[in-house]
Write a structure and sequence with these properties.
The chain is mainly α and about 120 residues long. It folds into 2 domains: about 50 residues, no CATH class; about 45 residues, no CATH class. About 70% of the residues lie in helices and about 0% in strands. The longest helix is centred in the N-terminal third of the chain and has 25 residues.
Amino acid sequence: MIKWFHHLLNPHCPHCLAERELNEHCRACDILQYEVERLRAENERLLARILHIPESIPERSIAPEPLSPRPRVTTWAVRKQMLEAEDREKAKILSKAPVAKETQDLEDELLNAEIVREAQK
């Protein structure tokens, strides 16, 4: 509080000026000031690059490709019909496929094969 009154009454005291100069020049402050200046310069460079408008835009010799049409959104009724048609096709394919044998038939074949094999020995 005494320093505040002293500074208020004697703002340009030589002792206070010397003390202020010593306090202002610490190494950490110098490093921070250097970093702030570096960041400002980098930000200015980036802004200049972002805001730079090219003087002339080179013309393309190839015409741009036309945009392909976007897929249409299908309603549930249409989607349902498509799924049912796919299921009917799968059912047709499965009906034409060879019928799998029953487990009992396979066991009988295996038993017959064992009997034939033992008879050959």
